[in-house]
Amino acid sequence: MALSRKAGFVAVAYAFGVTMLSTTLPTPLYPLYRGAFGFSELTVTLVYAAYAVGVLAALVAFGNVSDAVGRRRVLLPGLAAALLSAVVFLTAADLPMLFVGRVLSGLAAGLFTGTATATLVDLVPDRDRALGSLVATLVNMGGLGVGPLLAGVLAEYVGAPLRVTFVVDLMLLVPAFIGVLLAPETVTETSRSRRPPLAVPRQVRAVFGQAALTGFAGFVVLGTFTAVSPAALSQLLHQHNLAVVGVVVFVVFAASTAGQLALPLFTTRVGLPAGAATLTLGATLIAAALWREPLALLIVGGVVAGFGQGLGFRAGIAAVSTAVSAERRAGVTSALFAVLYIGISVPVVGIGIAAQSAGLKTASVGAALAVAVLKLLAATSLLVRPVAEAER
C-alpha cells in the first residue's frame, strides 16, 4: 500500500532526520570508547573522519543516481547502511569495528543527503519548493543535533550506554525503512533519463560556488564541535558529564535550525553574507572561550556560530535547489553536500594532528580562528558579488 504524497513527505522527512541522528550518536561516547579500547585523541579524529570516506564515496558514486533510477532505490540502501552501522556499533569489540561503523554511517549520510533533499522538494507542489527545501535542511540539522543529545543522556544516566544507545537507534531506523518503502516514487518512467554526470551545470556554477564557499566553513565548525568537543569540554573546561557534552553539541545544531528558520526575514542575497558574518563572530567567540576556558562563553559562541551557519546553509541550499532543473537536482545537491562534508570531516583530522604536537587548546583555538578568517573572506566575497547577481 503506497502512501499519499503528504504522508510520503512526512515519512521521508522522518527517515532523513533519523538517518542523520544516527551519524552523530557516537559523539558523546568517544571518551567511553577511548577508555575501553585505549586510543589517542588523534585516533578519535581519524575514527570521526572515516565517516567522510563513506560520505564522499556515496556522493561521488551514487549521489546523482536517483535522478535516473528513482529516489527510493537510493534511499532504501541508505537506510540499510544506517541499520548495518547501528549493528556494528552495537556489537563493537575493538577499534577496527568503530572504523567500519563510521564508514557505513557515512555511506548512509552520503546516499541520503542529496537524494532525500531532492525527494522532499519533489513531493511538494512547484509553488512550495521553498517549503521542501526548508524541511530538508531542518531535519538534516535537527537530526545531527538530536543524536549527541540522545546519546549523551543515555550515556550518563542509563546502564550499558555503548549497547543501549544503538538499540534505540535500531528502534528508530526500522519504522523509517518501512516509511520510505511505502513512500511514493517521484521519478516516474517518463521522467527518467540517462544518468547525468555528477557535475554542476554552467548556468548554476556561480550560485553553487557562493553556496559552497559559505557552507564549507560553517560545516568545519559543526565538525569541530561534533568530534573535538568531548575532549575539549573534559580537558579544557573540566566538564565530565556526558549529558553536558550532548547538550552543548545540541545547542549548536539547534541554533543552526533557528538560523534556517530566520531566512524568510532576509532575501537570499542578504542571507548568505549575513550568515557568513555572524559565523565569523561566533568562531571568534569560540576561540576566546577555548583560550580563557569559560563554558558560558563557549556556549554563546556556539549559538552565534550555529545561527550563522544555519542562515547561510539554508540560503545556499534554497538558491541551488531553485536554480537547477528537477532532472539534475539530486546530482547538483549531492555535489554541494560533497563540498560541505569535506568541511565537516577532513579538517578535524588536522586538528587531531595539531593537538598531538601543539596541544588540544592551541589546535582548537587555531582552528576556530582559521574558520573566522575564512568566513570573513566569504562574507566579503558575497558583499562584492551577491548571490542574486550570480543567479541572473
Automatic annotation (TrEMBL):
- The residues forming the signal peptide are none
Query: Major facilitator superfamily (MFS) profile domain: which residues?
Result: 8-392
Where's it mainly located? Answer: membrane
Lineage, top-rank taxon, reads Bacteria
Q: Does the keyword Cell membrane apply?
A: yes
Q: Which Pfam families match?
A: MFS_1
- Bilayer-crossing regions: 7-25, 45-62, 74-93, 99-121, 133-154, 160-183, 204-228, 240-263, 270-291, 297-320, 332-353, 365-384
Q: Which InterPro entries match?
A: MFS (IPR011701), MFS_dom (IPR020846), MFS_trans_sf (IPR036259), MFS_Transporters (IPR050171)
Q: Where in the cell is it found?
A: Cell membrane
Q: Which UniProt keywords apply?
A: Cell membrane, Membrane, Transmembrane, Transmembrane helix, Transport
How this chain sits in the membrane, per its record, is: Multi-pass membrane protein
Under Gene3D superfamilies, the record lists: MFS general substrate transporter like domains
Instruction: Specify the protein name.
Output: MFS transporter
Organism annotation: Jatrophihabitans cynanchi
